[in-house]
Design a protein that fits this description.
Oligomer: single chain
Largest sheet: 4 strands, antiparallel
Radius of gyration: 17 Å
Shape: globular
Low-confidence stretches: none
Mean pLDDT: 90
Number of strands: 9
Strand order of the largest sheet: 2-8-5-6
């Protein structure tokens, strides 16, 4: 079995970080509105409609989220436009989820992250094909775990 070669990138080479926006004027709907803590509500408009990694800007810096349906983000969380010619979005999401980002905190009171703090993160990636294969397996496992958690919650209720 051959070892896969890894290449080192700066996160700025793999994605563009975008700011969230105020959601108060949006009507109610079925589109998730994310904050740094998770889904806050559902609205009738979206900011972005492709798979994206949601990166906390304020608050819980370890709560990196993934979304593959149209969504809106508020100003406590960034969304990303990922260069899918270089990386698989889900693979990169899982990679970033394993990092301890608290060391990059730039806040004085509330934990905070800046564009530049994220952009300077070094990421080592295997080939795009290896990323896709790994991401496919991880997605299947994550889906199974989610289903088992739902079953456990239903049994407990």
């Amino acid at each position: 079995m051959a070892l896969t070669e890894f290449r080192t990138y700066k996160l700025k080479d793999l994605l563009k970080i975008k700011n969230g926006k105020d959601h108060k004027a949006l009507g109610n709907g079925s589109i998730p509105v994310y904050g740094s803590g998770g889904i806050m509500r559902y609205a009738d408009s979206y900011l972005y409609d492709k798979a994206s990694i949601l990166l906390p800007r304020k608050g819980s810096l370890d709560n990196i989220q993934y979304c593959e349906v149209p969504f809106w983000t508020v100003d406590t969380i960034y969304y990303t436009e990922v260069n899918d010619n270089l990386c698989d979005v889900y693979y990169l999401y899982r990679y970033l989820s394993m990092l301890d980002l608290s060391r990059l905190d730039s806040g004085t009171g509330v934990p905070s992250m800046t564009f530049d703090s994220y952009y300077q993160i070094e990421v080592k990636l295997p080939t795009l094909e290896a990323q896709k294969q790994t991401a496919s397996m991880l997605k299947a496992l994550d889906s199974k775990i989610h289903i088992n958690e739902q079953i456990n919650r239903n049994l407990a209720a």
